Amino acid sequence: MENITPPYLQPGDTIGIVAPARFVSREMLQPAIRFLTNQGYLVKTAPHLYSRHYQFAGTDGERAQDLMEMIEDPSVKAILCARGGYGTVRILDLLNLRKLQQNPKWIIGYSDITVLHSLINGWFGIESLHATMPINFPESISGNESTLALVKVLTGEPLSYTLPNHPLNLPGRANGMLIGGNLSMLSSLCGTTSDMSYNGRILFIEDVDEYLYHIDRMVMQLKRSGKLKSITGLIIGHFTDMKDNEIPFGSNAYEIIYSAVKEYNIPVCFGFPAGHSEPNLPLILGRNVNLVVDEKEVKISFTNTL
């Protein structure tokens, strides 16, 4: 059964911006607002978007209220999360995502926003976008590869990627619903009511600013919980700014993942350009995707719903 595809955007539609995690400033978001306006969209900012409560963009209640207002506002066609950091998990119990199911719209973000993707895809059957966020939009009004690709996906252009081979790739073919996001967030959701089924699905993972032994621990958690054994394919994005101890761990992030999954007969793609580095190309989570990995290249194509 395929998930629900939210309506694609038309010129003049409204995009809402919320901050469900770390705080942001007006200056941080001006490039994104200028770019989206230049692309022909109206931009609506949440009432507490620039609020601050210690590290967070307002209290848990304020951040949840902002997201629910955007979900319930019929004029808002897509909801762009301003940044990640930490804090989205704290508002999950304050949300009524049944209302999003009744009136689907694109939820966009990555990193800490992975916890929303997990719920939206796994429990409410709605597609969402793992993509760049306003905190990353460039100063140039013309945008960059990540922002321009986001607009294309939001307007319904077919999405596919062809990538060069990576030495650690494992060949094969797979089809399944794409799930995933930030490895740290996925690991933190294991065993909670916000976790989702990995069975028969293609998993995407990325991460930033972690010690290598943390990466190994989180990958082992996914493995020992049976999640890695149950997936049909794996796509690995950026693992940015990895850290090591004085005594080296002995493997880099990609080698850690390869060691954990090499025993499974599934296609594995390393080096997909998404995550905490540029470019951060969009992925439609919750949609069926074809993954083909051979000795020359990788092809990733999403089912077109138009």
From TrEMBL:
Annotated LD-carboxypeptidase N-terminal domain residues: 15-131
**Where are the active-site residues found?**
111 (nucleophile), 206 (charge relay system), 276 (charge relay system)
One Pfam entry for this protein is Peptidase_S66
Tell me, what is one Gene Ontology molecular-function annotation carried by this entry? carboxypeptidase activity
Keyword terms = Carboxypeptidase, Hydrolase, Protease, Serine protease
Q: Which domain of life is it from?
A: Bacteria
**LD-carboxypeptidase C-terminal domain location:** 175-291
GO BP of this protein: proteolysis
Q: Which family does it belong to?
A: Belongs to the peptidase S66 family.
Q: What is this protein called?
A: LD-carboxypeptidase
Report the source organism: Tenuifilum thalassicum
